[in-house]
Structure formats: structure tokens, C-alpha cells
Amino acid sequence: ITPPSSDLNFASYLLDLNAGRGDKLAFIDDTRRLTYGQLGDRIRQFAGVLRDLGVRREERVLLLMHDTIDWPVVFLGSLYAGVVPVAVNTLLTADDYAYILAHSRSRAAFVSGALLDTLKQAMASGPNQVEHIVVSQPVADNNVAESNVADNNRSVPALHEFEASMAAAAPRAQAARTLADEIAFWLYSSGSTGRPKGVVHSHCNLWYTAELYAKPVLGITENDITFSAAKLFFAYGLGNGLTFPLSVGATSVLMAERPTPAATYARIVDHQPTIFFGVPTLYASMLAHTAIPARSDVALRVCASAGEALPQDIGDRFTQHFGCEILDGIGSTEMLHIFLSNHSGKVRYGTTGLPVQGYEVELRDENGKPVGDGEIGDLYIRGPSAAVMYWNNREKTRQTFLGDWLKSGDKYQRDADGYYTYAGRSDDMLKVSGLYVSPVEVENVLSQHPAVLEAAVVGLTDSDGLVKTKAYVVLCQGNEPSVAMQETLKQFVKAHLAPFKYPRYIEFVDDLPKTATGKIQRFKLRQAQEA
Ligand code: 3SK
């Protein structure tokens, strides 16, 4: 593909691209609809709000909002104005937001009414530079009663209501003349340890993910309706629900609430999306749901999965029922979207597929040397959508961004046909009796047992100081924890994998600790063990 020109304002690019689609629906949320014409008007209007609030080019603003049509307006309106939105997870604690506010030095905060109290708590607990809080969809006790007049000499932040601020602003006719390589937005990425890292992305990165993944791999066109269970504040959701559909003039369905199977199916049936984006845990619970819609009730033509490896059985059962493939892939906040993926017509469930064209992938050993097919190695990626850096974190930036290459922190194995299979996070891998054991591999086998809903495997250091595998297992309803069940599951794993991989210990639990995207937090299980 030909790279974009060195002048690129991604928001302005999208507005130009969709200029002929004024009456077409761009977004449908839980209560409202927005055409492309209205979206363009609101983006220009929002850039006027930023000017009224005194937010200047290259300054940061916090975007802490649920998925409604205001989210893309704030995100793209900021890009349009050359202001940098810092989009954050709506499920964090006040302590996390206090850290992010101080770290990003956000000048204003755009927040959903339901999250205002948490934001205020964060602001009260630490230093920050927020002068204005603008509340989208206020709730009853928000008290957004003040006049909406910006006064930059205040000592406490002014509270504004989103719609009133929009109504009072004069639209900004011209977009900021940004460069393709200019900083466009930040996302925060949390690792298994330490504070979240501010991942800094440029305008062209958004363009690349649409050109390299969404168009060729998903085959997305203007006739599609997208629906992403992953929220817009995740890199995965941002592409799925915003930049991909808008890059082709498609329609995106947004949902503010948590993606339960019932809520997800309701959108799939009511709005007839043609592309659905989920995560493995959700696909599993959708298949276990008591009221699965019939294939004839849905319009799905392709689905995507990321966040963690999709077990083969879930892919098979989903395709059997809905007649539609799930393209399992892996991306990262640092690469912005998916760089390794299954491709329609060539899906191999249980694998993460093949490199997305435009990205290079390598597996290396501890000394940085490429490993052979069938061997487990560390995953490195090279591609044009890589983030610029972690903000104000030289050490972590240097450890991750290695020239053109980026170290993902995942372990993979490639087979003779070039398909990649996930072998766990680098720091989750176990070495038992000198041999690598992938917790994911053992979990996948356990999950295939009819009594098992889900499982997580970690290393347990025994009294000899040797690492043994331990499985935390959630049983399906109607199955009771027992010694006999432990023995059955151990034998089941031994029958399916090299015997040394079977979990020496099994503990039954009610649920597993997970991130908001559904990734199992094995480090929490390890910590609980050590406590
Ligand atoms: O979790 C993933 O695989 C992923 C996919 C797309 C974008 C971001 C992420 C973390």
C-alpha cells in the first residue's frame, strides 16, 4: 500500500472520505442515532468547545466515557483540533485515574455522568491540571447546574454539561494541520506489575490498522454494520467500533452496558450487525446462554476474536451454530490493532493464524536468535502502526520498542505451514522439570472436559522448590467439586497432552480473576498462592 501523505489529520480525513454520505447512519447507540452529516457537524462543534475551554493544540484531555455517540465526537473532535485525547478504561479505580490525570497532565476531562463521582474522587486525591470537567449524559445527582461559561481563572474545575457546551460553541471550520507522524491520542496499557503505561499513538497509525487489517482481513465495506463487545477505550474496540467502520462509511452499533450474553445477543438481533467483535470468554458464555438466537435471526458474515487465544472447541461450535467464522487474532495496545490473524476460508481454530500482510513477525530465543518451526519463542513484530513510545518512561520504552521491532511479551510456536499458536505470556510460562509448559495449552484441554466451564493454570513451587502446575477450575453447573473430579481431570489432561504437563494440583473456584477484556489474570492467582 502507498503510505498516507506526510500531512494527515485522521479526523479530517474521515470527514472528507464520508462527505457524500450525509444521510447515512454512522452510529447507533442505546438511545440515539447519528448520521455521517451530523457526525461531521458535531466534530466541528466539539472542536469549538475545546477552543472555548481554552484547550490548545497538543494539550491532553481525558476521555472517560461509556460507549455512546458522544465518545467518537470527543475522540475525533479532539484529533480534528490537534488536541490529544487520553482514552481510558471506564472500569478503573479513583486511584488509577488520579495517577493518569497527573501523568497525562490532562487540561480538561470529558466524563459520563455515571462516572463523575469517581473522577471527582480521583481529582481530590492528587495533583492534576484539570480546569474543566464536561459531563456527557448527566445523571440525577451530578448537579451540573452551573452556567457553562468557561472561566480560566478558576481555582476549582468548572463543571459543564456536554450538550449545553456544544450548543454554545461556534463550529471550527478548518481542521488543525497535523502531520501523519504527529501525536494523535494516548491509550493506557496495564501490565501484570506497576503503574499503567501511557501508549502514545500518531495519526497515521489509525490509518494503517484500517488499511492493513480491517479492509483486507475483515473485508469491511460500507455495506457492513459493526458491533464490538470490546469498548472503544481499548485499542481493539477503537478500531472495531470507530476507525474501521468510518474508514469505509459503514455503520457502528455502540453499547454502553457491560457485554453480557443477553445484552450482546439483543444488539445482534435488533441491529443485525454483519461483523461482530468479541473475546473468547464472551464467545464461551454466548454459546452457554440459554437463549441463543437461531442462525436465521442474525446477519453475521464474519466475527473476530482477540484478547486471549480462542479455544478450538468454541470456534467450532460457534461456526456450527451461526455458520460464520471467528477470525482469532492477536494485537496489542502498542501495535494498535491485530497483526497476526486467521483469515476467512483458511481458519485453523486453536491457532492465531498467519501474519497480517504489512506486518512481519519473528519468534526468537532468549539470545535473540530466531527459533525453528515447532519451537516456542518470544514474539517480535515489525509494522507501521507501532506506537511512538510510552510517555515519560524511557526504561519500559527501551525494553519494548527495539528499533523497528517491538517485543510483545507473548510466547508463540509456528508450525510448518506458517500458522502461529499461542503459548502464553512470556511471564506466565512455566518450566516444569526443565521443560516449558504453556498454561494456555493445559487450560484449553481442561476446558474441553464437559464438566469444566473454564480454567487457569499457574506454577506452584513445591516444598522442594520445584515448579509444578496448578489448575484453578470453575465447574459447569450441576458438577460438584470432589477428589474424584480432581482425578478425572488429571487423567483427562494426561490423555490429551504430554503427561508431564498434567496439573499436579487442582483447586475448584467459583470464578477466575480477569481484566475488563476478559484476560485471565494469572498473576493474581500466583499472588494469592504466595500470600
Ligand atoms: O488483545 C489483543 O489481542 C488486542 C487486539 C487488538 C488491539 C489491541 C489488543 C490488546
Structural overview:
The protein is globular. It has 531 residues and is of the alpha/beta class. The termini are far apart. The strands form 5 sheets. A 9-stranded mixed sheet has the order 2-1-11-10-12-13-14-15-16. The protein has an 8-stranded mixed sheet with strand order 7-6-5-3-4-8-9-19, with helices on both faces. Strands 17, 18, 20, 21 and 22 form a 5-stranded antiparallel sheet that branches. The chain is built from 15 helices and 27 strands. Helix content is 30%, strand content 25%. A hairpin with a 6-residue loop joins strand 14 (326-331) and strand 15. The relative contact order is 0.09. The chain binds 2-methylbenzoic acid. 2-methylbenzoic acid (3SK) is lined by residues 235-236, 306-307, 330-333, 337-338.
List its traits.
27 strands; 531 residues; 15 helices; alpha/beta; eight-stranded mixed beta sheet; nine-stranded mixed beta sheet; 25% strand; binds 2-methylbenzoic acid
Give a quick rundown of the structure.
It is globular and about 70 Å long. The strands form five sheets. Strands 2-1-11-10-12-13-14-15-16 form a nine-stranded mixed beta sheet. The chain contains 15 helices and 27 strands.
Class from secondary-structure proportions = alpha/beta
Number of strands: 27
Mean of all residue-level pLDDT scores: 93
* Overall 3D shape: globular
Radius of gyration: 23 Å
Largest sheet: 9 strands, mixed
Name the helicity range.
25-40%
Low-confidence stretches: 147-154
Biggest sheet strand line-up: 2-1-11-10-12-13-14-15-16
Bound molecules: 2-methylbenzoic acid
Q: Which band does the percent of strand residues land in? A: 15-25%
